[in-house]
Design goal:
The complex is a heterodimer of chains A (455) and B (370). Chain A is built from four helices and 31 strands. Chain A is mainly β. Among the domains of chain A are: 162 residues, no CATH class; 95 residues, no CATH class. A four-stranded antiparallel sheet of chain A has the order 26-25-27-28, with no helix packed on it. In chain A, strands 8-9-10 form a three-stranded antiparallel sheet, with no helix packed on it. In chain A, helix 3 packs across helix 4. The longest helix of chain A is centred in the C-terminal third of the chain and has 8 residues. With 370 residues, chain B is of the alpha+beta class. An eight-stranded antiparallel beta barrel of chain B has the order 1-2-3-5-6-8-9-11. In chain B, a hairpin with a 5-residue loop joins strand 10 and strand 11. Chain B is globular, with a radius of gyration of 25 Å. Chain B starts with a helix and ends with a strand. The chains are: A mainly beta (455), B alpha+beta (370). Chains A and B meet through strand 22, strand 23, helix 3 and strand 29 of A and helix 2, helix 3, helix 6, helix 7 and strand 12 of B. Strand 22 of chain A pairs antiparallel with strand 12 of chain B.
């Protein structure tokens, strides 16, 4: 399991010298489990679809994921939609708004003559004549006078990037999130089936369960189904998550009695605990203790075979088979409709400016695509091997001139950093605007020990 | 009766002796200097910027323009511009600055004069060196030329200074500790060992939010191995000076996980049992410094303090004074910082736990394909 190798790559020479910290965050078996959700009444023609990383999401009759665009406060104002007030219109936007400091509004957007309207990228989920509200589902008036569906007041859309059931490519890599990433869209879905004491947080590893106060919860390998074996000295390090006296079991959540009158929550029959020494919340710190694991409602699919988890001075990042840190590109423009610009089908000017001052050749030195090996293949939907034209930055067909066979995550190419020299280097992390949340590259963080990467 | 009295007085004596012993032990346990060791944790760090009251001596042309001012000069608001040729032109220049030439119409003012705060890093008083307000000569602090007229870095309220202090308190990523061992006398000792660690815990504050001595810090032996360095030092009249070594330290910035590479790093610190205060110096890796500037505090934040990273990068290369590359271009620049520490009790890792962790110094991989 532990490796010691030296790899010389054509583009980047790396010395992979030792082993990563053991990770006890999940088990192989957990990959098959899906997040439980609250069954809610829906209008006809809609369904819940399980998406690999996002978990259960709403979809239309064809299986296309539905999205919302909540209001996000940006540096110079808000963008997004208020409940009941959709703004995504069929009129293309031509200039920036100036919401993103320090640049002023009124600048002409890239590829302005072909820039699509918001509704061309985010088709509204139209409601048929006579559609009636059902539960949290309501009908609202769109800006173009059309009726569209809304969930919990937020107008619903599909994404032109999604081609099949289970795709959720409309959501960008969205890292680190918040005002650093612009006002991005997110899939809409039913609430997770969790008692009020708990919360669920999305990581690239999957849907992590925490307490409502964000402390991670853990399970113990030495426990038995609905029976805790953490007693005595064990309780100096971990504390049972106690359940209120009058609480009832809920879905996969059961209640065990540790001792007379002392009740503890169990999830999927495993008693749950908090780690007494957890510094930053949530964290994976407790899972460093042998026999202890974080609790995920649903795990992301396994990384492609051969990919590695690499230690850094701030946690763990995903690396390729040669130990090179993998990077994701984030981009969101400054138009009022806040369109994504991180996908190959979208304007490449933002990316090319930062990696090569507009020169794609230079970009292949600073941020080369991660080429897929001849024998490599994807075993999931979110990871794929595709072909890209490095000159245009567009997806192309395998036989097109100059096409490169590259790894993609969430239908976007992943990158290496030309400045990384050794395993564990992440010299290009945060390279870009607003710590790279707005336009730039972030390392593929798996574990964020110090909470510095917004994941 | 007699024996009862005798027994009672013996008990009293025993309790008294025990209490005294306990008191003595407790008193010793609270002593900052124990078994020849004393720990300190960094609480303040700022570039050593020499400033006159009105700034006119070192910055006769005033302070520099930042991204907003430069953008307005290059792309006046009363004209039409597009994102690619204006905004993205500026961002490309931030990330990949021209090493020699600025965009026509823009100027950058370096700090003037021969006065600066800092240390003599090379033991020479050569052309280009500074003299300091306290009478030193041969001071090596060329980064002062770069940052001296940038509002972000000037005291007392430069925006960068504010954020560094703020994140010193908010974060643990940047927790720098210094442990002195082999100390016979904190006033004078010709041979002490100085070890740098990263700590894992919050800084101790009083009710008013001021840093105070006496806290505890665990060593980050797990993720912070690359920050652990050891050197020797000597204490003369309460001032510690250390033997130069190369170090990496975690930087205090708002986002990401920035670090600096410093060659020939050393400190000169006035020590007390409650803290240490003085100067840090060394030669900074310009590439890494530029990476820190662009990665973790983008143009928006640099605009607060009118800081133009691309101009600074050119000034760094121009003023670089050590460690040339194969083409003869110096790649490191002499730098000085003003720093303060508070005394802290450093908790070393449990040997049993430490044994279970990798001892490889950082770079590490594990197969993750499952």
């Amino acid at each position: 399991m532990r490796t010691s190798t030296i790899v010389l790559a054509a583009s980047v020479a790396l010395a992979v010298t030792a082993q990563a910290k053991e990770t006890h965050q999940w088990t192989k078996q957990q990959h098959a489990l899906q997040q439980e959700y609250v069954q809610e009444e829906m209008p006809p023609g809609f369904q819940v679809v399980n998406v690999e990383v996002e978990g259960p999401v709403f979809a239309d009759a064809s299986g296309k994921t539905l999205y919302i665009w909540p209001v996000t406060p940006l540096r110079n104002g808000n963008a997004g939609e208020l409940k009941g007030k959709p703004t995504c219109s069929s009129t293309p936007t031509r200039v920036t708004t100036g919401l993103q400091s320090p640049y002023p509004g009124g600048l002409e957007l890239p590829e302005v003559d072909t820039r699509p309207a918001c509704t061309a990228v985010w088709p509204p989920v139209l409601a048929p004549a006579g559609a009636k509200p059902v539960g949290k589902w309501t009908v609202v008036d769109g800006p173009d006078g059309r009726k569209q569906w809304a969930y919990d007041g937020q107008a619903l859309y599909t994404s032109v990037l999604d081609k099949k059931r289970g795709d959720a490519w409309g959501q960008s890599n969205n890292n680190p999130g918040g005002d650093s990433s612009g006002a991005s869209r997110e899939p809409a879905g039913p609430p997770a089936n969790i008692p009020p004491q708990f919360a669920v947080k999305s990581y690239k590893n999957g849907k992590l369960l925490t307490l409502a106060n964000t402390k991670s919860i853990y399970v113990y390998d030495k426990d038995q189904p609905n029976k805790s074996n953490c007693t005595g000295a064990c309780l100096e390090t971990f504390s049972p998550v106690l359940a209120p006296e009058n609480v009832q079991p809920q879905g996969a959540w059961s209640i065990i009695e540790r001792s007379s009158g002392v009740k503890q929550w169990a999830y999927r029959k495993q008693p749950v605990y908090t780690y007494n020494l957890e510094e930053k919340t949530p964290s994976f710190e407790g899972a460093d203790q042998p026999g202890w694991r974080n609790v995920f409602m649903q795990l992301a699919p396994p990384f492609p075979k051969g990919f590695q988890i690499t230690d850094t001075n701030a946690g763990q990042v995903l690396a390729d088979a040669r130990g090179r840190t993998i990077y994701l590109y984030n981009c969101n423009d400054d138009a009022i409709d806040q369109l994504d610009c991180s996908h190959p089908s979208q304007p490449q000017a933002y990316r090319l400016a930062l990696c090569g001052k507009g020169d794609w050749h230079r970009c292949q030195e600073t941020f080369p695509y991660l080429l897929a090996g001849a024998g490599e293949k994807s075993e999931s939907n979110i990871w794929a091997i595709k072909y890209i034209d490095p000159a245009s930055g567009r997806w192309v067909e395998p036989n097109d001139p100059g096409a490169l066979r590259v790894w993609a995550y969430r239908d976007r190419p992943v990158y290496l950093c030309g400045r990384d020299k050794a395993a564990g280097d992440f010299e290009c992390d945060g390279w870009g605007e607003f710590s790279a949340g707005r336009n730039g590259w972030k390392a593929f963080w798996i574990r964020d020990v110090y909470g510095r990467n917004g994941i | 009766m007699e024996s009862e009295e005798k027994g009672s007085s013996m008990k009293t004596a025993f309790v008294t002796v025990s209490a005294l012993a306990l008191f003595a032990f407790a008193a010793q346990a609270d002593e900052p200097l124990q078994n020849g060791k004393i720990g300190y944790v960094l609480t303040n760090k700022n570039w050593a910027i020499y400033q006159t009251p009105d700034g006119k001596a070192e910055c006769p042309n005033g302070l520099n323009d930042g991204p907003r001012e430069q953008f307005d000069k290059l792309y006046p608001r009363d004209q039409k511009h597009n994102v690619v040729d204006s905004w993205l032109e500026r961002e490309g220049e931030v990330m990949l600055p021209d090493p020699v030439r600025a965009k026509p119409g823009l100027t950058f003012f370096e700090a003037q004069g021969d006065m600066a705060i800092g240390l003599d890093l090379d033991g020479k008083n050569k052309p280009g060196d500074f003299r300091s307000p306290d009478g030193r000569t041969g001071v090596d602090n060329r980064i002062y030329r770069v940052f001296g007229c940038v509002g972000n870095y000037r005291g007392p309220d430069g925006s960068y200074r504010h954020f560094v202090e703020s994140y010193m308190q908010k974060d643990n990523f940047n927790r720098i500790m210094m442990e002195l061992s082999g100390v016979d006398d904190l006033a004078n000792d010709p041979d002490v060992t100085v070890t740098l660690y990263r700590g894992r815990d919050d800084l101790l504050l009083d009710a008013a939010g001021k840093f105070i001595a006496g806290g505890t810090q665990r060593i980050d032996a797990e993720w912070g191995k690359e920050f652990i360095r050891t050197t020797k030092g000597r204490i003369v009249d309460g001032v510690l000076t250390t033997v130069p070594i190369d170090i990496t330290y975690p930087e205090s910035l708002a986002r990401g996980a920035p670090k600096q590479f410093v060659k020939d790093w050393r400190v000169e610190l006035k020590l007390t049992t409650s803290g240490a205060e003085g100067l840090m110096g060394g030669y900074l890796d310009i590439q890494r410094l530029h990476n820190n500037l662009i990665q973790n505090w983008g143009t928006h934040y640099r605009s607060y303090g009118q800081e133009s990273i691309s101009d600074e990068y050119r000034a760094m290369l121009k003023n670089a004074d050590a460690y040339p590359d194969k083409n003869g271009q110096n790649r490191f620049i002499s730098s000085g910082w003003e720093i303060k520490f508070k005394q802290v009790f450093i908790i070393h890792p449990d040997p049993a736990v430490a044994k279970a962790t990798p001892q490889d110094g950082g770079a590490a991989t594990e197969k993750a394909g499952r």
